[in-house]
């Protein structure tokens, strides 16, 4: 079986590695990667920028040479231009030589990821305009921050990457402004979490401008000098800018295939086996979209955790092995200065948008036994009004925050009600929780 894989990061290399372990030499695998980096942890890039991770090489799990040694050749700087699913061929361009050639496949795996959206005014190159999708991008930003002359940083977009990069830039003692089009930071979370994150940013010297759009980047001699923003009421303001980082969303890279069914954002629709609408074509990671286990609707969840699981599923399916079940819950977390936040399942805003008949309940509790520590956290539970099944949860605060959200991810996957969750037999010791864990209290007090 000849397998062509497009993309050599999380999804693609997870699929390749699993398939190679399953079939060994029975599978002929060729991987095409448009860039020069493979199998790296993109989620670690903000921490590399901050200096917490000293060397960008530490983010690479395995090099192209190491993959080649185990029988998985990767052709870097090779871009797949188009796919002919009738003839089962791919048209490939060597980006170094310009040569174009055709390759054939029995099975095609698409793990091409997503790219930063370059809408105006971010569609023109400037020396000090950056985006962050790979380690090389992180290195460029880090080198720019090392310059004492770079004082003002403008970050466009207040999603996960934008917020983490804001903290990284503050670690370099820069003046940082975050500009977000939505009316809150981290729009994927509910408003109260966004407000807590905003307050944490401002406590740590980050200026936050929500409900604002960047309309112009003023420049001199190829360098941006200011970002012009427009507020909701139509007023404009210039923000001084020595560094501008575009983190205002991503777009799936799928233009090379026209026959597969796609979502509105261009992501390829897949089922629980990562099969597309085209026979023998599979997709995984940031270029794909699958149904949520909570809503049943297609839900775009571009995270490395999902990409790795989806790639492993493909590696099993291609080998004729029944894959382990994967339920897309929509789990994500963030540490921002001294505040942790996590979300699993649907937020209240998402539940309302989906037309769910739900109830929401929020508590503030202790991270540990009250006599052991003073850290507080908040837990918000979303559950079905009639069945009381848990649909989602958000946790934010100090101390042990993310593990509490993970309890709820397991509860959602298992189909538990708030009543069942409230009496879960969890571990207890004062350094970890009160005798009634905050997650149990949140569930038990849900009426």
From TrEMBL:
Q: Domain named Pyridine nucleotide-disulphide oxidoreductase dimerisation: which ranges?
A: 338-436
Keyword Flavoprotein present in the record's keywords: the answer is yes
Which key words tag this protein in UniProt?
FAD, Flavoprotein, Oxidoreductase, Redox-active center
| InterPro entries reported for this sequence | FAD-bd_OxRdtase, FAD/NAD-bd_sf, FAD/NAD-binding_dom, FAD/NAD-linked_Rdtase_dimer_sf, Pyr_nucl-diS_OxRdtase_dimer
Xref: Pfam families: Pyr_redox_2 (PF07992), Pyr_redox_dim (PF02852)
A GO MF annotation of the entry reads: oxidoreductase activity
* Residue span(s) of domain FAD/NAD(P)-binding: 1-295
Kindly list the cofactors needed: FAD
What protein family does this chain belong to?
Belongs to the class-III pyridine nucleotide-disulfide oxidoreductase family.
Name of the protein in its database record: FAD-dependent oxidoreductase
- State the organism's lineage: Bacteria, Bacillati, Bacillota, Clostridia, Lachnospirales
């Amino acid at each position: 079986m000849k397998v062509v894989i497009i993309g050599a990061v999380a999804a693609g290399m997870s699929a390749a590695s699993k398939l190679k372990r399953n079939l060994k030499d029975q599978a002929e695998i060729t991987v095409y990667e448009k860039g020069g980096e493979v199998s790296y942890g993109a989620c670690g890039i903000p921490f590399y920028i901050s200096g917490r991770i000293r060397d960008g090489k530490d983010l690479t799990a395995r090099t192209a040479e190491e993959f080649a040694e185990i029988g998985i050749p990767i052709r870097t700087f090779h871009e797949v231009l188009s796919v002919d699913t009738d003839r089962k061929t791919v048209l490939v361009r060597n980006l170094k030589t310009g040569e174009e050639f055709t390759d054939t496949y029995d099975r095609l795996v698409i793990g091409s990821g997503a790219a930063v959206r370059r809408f105006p005014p971010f569609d023109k190159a400037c020396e000090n305009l950056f985006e962050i999708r790979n380690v090389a991008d992180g290195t460029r930003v880090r080198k720019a921050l090392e310059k004492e002359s770079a004082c003002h940083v403008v970050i466009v977009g207040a999603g996960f990457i934008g917020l983490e990069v804001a903290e990284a830039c503050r670690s370099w003692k820069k003046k940082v402004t975050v500009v977000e089009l939505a009316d809150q930071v981290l729009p994927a979370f509910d408003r109260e979490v966004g407000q807590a994150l905003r307050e944490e940013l401002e406590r740590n010297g980050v200026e936050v401008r929500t409900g604002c759009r960047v309309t112009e980047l003023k420049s001199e001699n190829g360098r941006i000098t200011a970002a012009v923003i427009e507020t909701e009421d139509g007023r404009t303001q210039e923000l001084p800018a020595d560094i501008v980082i575009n983190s205002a969303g991503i777009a799936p890279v799928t233009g090379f295939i026209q026959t597969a069914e796609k979502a509105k954002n261009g992501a390829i629709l897949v089922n629980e086996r990562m099969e597309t609408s085209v026979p023998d074509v599979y997709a995984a990671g940031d270029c794909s979209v699958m149904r949520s286990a909570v809503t049943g609707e297609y839900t775009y969840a571009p995270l490395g955790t999902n990409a790795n699981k989806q790639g492993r599923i493909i590696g099993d399916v291609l080998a004729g092995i029944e894959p382990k079940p994967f339920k897309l819950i929509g789990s994500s977390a963030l540490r921002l200065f001294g505040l942790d936040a996590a979300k699993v399942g649907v937020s209240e805003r998402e539940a309302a948008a989906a037309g769910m008949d739900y109830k929401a309940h929020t508590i503030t509790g202790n991270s540990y036994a009250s006599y052991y520590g003073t850290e507080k956290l908040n837990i918000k539970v979303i559950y079905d009004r009639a069945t009381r099944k848990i649909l989602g949860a958000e946790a934010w605060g100090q101390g042990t925050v993310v593990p509490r959200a993970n309890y709820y991810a397991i509860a959602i996957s298992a189909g538990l009600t708030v009543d069942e969750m409230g009496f879960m037999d969890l571990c207890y010791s004062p350094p970890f929780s009160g005798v009634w864990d905050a997650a149990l209290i949140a569930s038990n007090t849900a009426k």
